[in-house]
Amino acid sequence: MSNDPIFRTANRPAPPVTRFRQPADVFEALLQSIQGGESHARPTFELTPGSPLLAFMEIGYALRACLEKPERHDYLLHRLRPHLGVLIGTLPASIMPLGMLPKLAPPPGFRPLNAIADDEIRAWLIQEGSLIYGEMQRFELENYFDAVRPYLSPGGVMVDLGSGLGKVVMTAALTLPFARCIGVELLSYRHRLAQERCARMLTLAAQGLAALPEPLTPETPLSLPSGVVADGRHLLDLGARIAFIESDMFKVDVRGASLVFLYSTCFGPLMDAISNKLARELAEGALVSTTTFPIRHPAFRLLHAFAPGQVSWTSVMLYQRIGPVMTEPAAEERYLHQPDADEWEARVRQELATLFA
């Protein structure tokens, strides 16, 4: 595509919808209803027997125990230092005072840090980075769907891996004529909030449709927020086109997807594994978009790269799956990098001095 759309740089004024005169009012009310959530309360994890996060919490407790004792700070930095390539920021967010680890004492049997191997710490840091929450603002999502729309055919399945509170999934279902929009989220509380927000949106949709002066029929021509023309089924069947799944993204098969969305700004250490998964499962021609981190895999061709400040605050890349099915992962590791360890340690010690002043 030779010409980029004119992208927005801020959210436009959006007065509350007080009357439903036409379907456009319903769309606007629904889009307004799913905004926000960036600063939602993050509950602590629960120490529930059998929880898939118990192993994560064990290592988190061990790291936090060292953080809380200044005499153990040198040892904490010693254990983190070999893994800076997979560490997001200076210190892991989960072990900080406002992190999601339970504030209670660890249960009997949890190991101290000196009993935990380096490979376990590395795996923990990769998982910890993937739990960090982020989302696009409304104008960024409007930019995003304007950017990908020329590459999409009507219908198809959109999948958001790491869907959080569900805003991207619900925006996709409203904005473009996808047959199905699916969100996959690992954390139970985020999955629950997405379902609750979707239920409220669907209740509002029913109220708005009931209040229209002229009833919306399945055959009524309908202009979507993206400008694409559809029909009344788009709103009437909205609930049937949205689904949220509570699961690990690596355990959900995406082979039926036509567009996979990844807000991958904190997924750097996972990008090799994600790329290999998508290369195995996606059909030729399927699209994948990422933020911040590109896909460096021979099964994907870059269609367009949008610089920071165009579509979103960070870079956005759009890829197409090419070539035959890949049964083996790509051999080359593409995301190995090592920040300057001395600079990192200086930042951490400054942060610790402030934290324990």
By CATH, the superfamily of the largest domain comes out as Vaccinia Virus protein VP39
**In angstroms, what is the radius of gyration?**
22 Å
For the record, give the distance between the C-alpha atoms at the N and C termini, rounded to a whole number: 55 Å
Estimate what percentage of residues fall within beta strands. 5-15%
Number of domains: 2
SSE pattern, N- to C-terminal: HHHHHEHEHEEHEEHEEEH
The helicity comes to: 25-40%
CATH-derived architecture of the largest domain: 3-Layer(aba) Sandwich
The CATH C-level name of the largest domain is Alpha Beta
Based on secondary structure, the structural category is: alpha/beta
Keywords: Methyltransferase, S-adenosyl-L-methionine, Transferase
Protein name: Histone methylation protein DOT1-like protein
GO molecular function, one term: histone H3K79 methyltransferase activity
Organism: Duganella callida
What would your notes on this structure say?
The chain is α/β, with parallel strands linked by helices. The chain folds into 2 domains: 54-132, no CATH class; 134-321, Vaccinia Virus protein VP39 (Rossmann fold). It contains 10 helices and 9 strands. It has helices spanning 23-33, 54-67, 73-80, 118-130, 138-148, 167-175, 188-211, 233-236, 271-281, 341-355; strands at residues 157-161, 180-185, 221-223, 229-231, 242-246, 259-261, 287-291, 300-306, 316-321. A 7-stranded mixed beta sheet has the order 5-2-1-6-7-9-8, with helices on one face. Strand 6, helix 9 and strand 7 (287-291) form a beta-alpha-beta unit. Helix 1 runs antiparallel to helix 7 (188-211). Keywords: Methyltransferase, S-adenosyl-L-methionine, Transferase. This is Histone methylation protein DOT1-like protein. It holds the Pfam family DOT1.
